[in-house]
């Protein structure tokens, strides 16, 4: 049996040999770090709104927000673990998330409809961030990351649609 020729594409200085160059893995991990920051920021904002929503739609919004923040909590773990699988460290502080996130979390007390509007913007921001990582992962033939990104975009697009429908 002939030995496969080892090239720069199959070896990495950090000892990770998964068929993606170190440069590409780190570029993908950088994009995923932005996705993690956006996802964690959206988790935090959604959880805040779950706690603080008031008004005639309280029960339905309280439950909807709980469903969304629970899903986000699982998602941030999956994104962080993908970053680690690629050989990078996942950002894990409010400072780093604040630096990397593409949106800010409102600090003031908001009416229910304003909360919903902020959540629509947050859901859409996560989609845009995921979509921005897609070409980098696609060029590197990183199918696990592509699958993760596709699932995240699908879920956040659906959440944004459902939230927008409440504002119609």
Give a short summary of the structure.
With 168 residues, the protein is an all-alpha fold. Helix content is 71%, strand content 0%.
Structural summary, described in words:
The protein has about 170 residues and is an all-alpha fold. It has a single domain, classed as Up-down Bundle (Ferritin), CATH 1.20.1260.10. The chain is about 70% helix and about 0% strand. The protein has helices spanning about 20-50, 60-85, 95-100, 110-140, 145-165. The radius of gyration is 18 Å and the shape is elongated. The N and C termini lie far apart (about 65 Å).
> Which structural class should the secondary elements be placed in?
mainly alpha
Q: Label the overall shape.
A: elongated
CATH topology: Ferritin
How many domains would you count in the coordinates?
1
- Low-confidence stretches are 3-11
Hey, roughly how much beta strand do the residues contain? Answer: under 5%
Give the proportion of residues in helices: over 70%
Task: Return the CATH class.
Answer: Mainly Alpha
Sheet having the most strands: none
């Amino acid at each position: 049996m002939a030995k496969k020729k080892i090239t720069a594409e199959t070896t990495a200085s950090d000892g990770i040999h998964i068929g993606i160059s170190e440069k590409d893995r780190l570029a993908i991990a950088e994009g995923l770090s932005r996705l993690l920051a956006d996802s964690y920021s959206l988790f935090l904002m959604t959880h805040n709104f779950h706690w603080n929503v008031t008004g005639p739609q309280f029960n339905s919004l309280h439950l909807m927000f709980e469903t969304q923040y629970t899903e986000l909590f699982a998602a941030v773990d999956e994104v962080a673990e993908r970053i680690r699988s690629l050989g990078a460290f996942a950002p894990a502080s409010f400072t780093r998330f604040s630096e990397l996130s593409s949106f800010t979390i409102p600090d003031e007390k908001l009416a229910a409809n304003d909360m919903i509007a902020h959540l629509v913007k947050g859901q859409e921001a996560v989609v845009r961030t995921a979509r921005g990582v897609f070409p980098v992962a696609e060029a590197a033939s990183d199918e696990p990351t592509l699958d993760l990104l596709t699932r995240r975009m699908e879920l956040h697009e659906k959440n944004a649609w459902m939230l927008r429908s409440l504002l119609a």
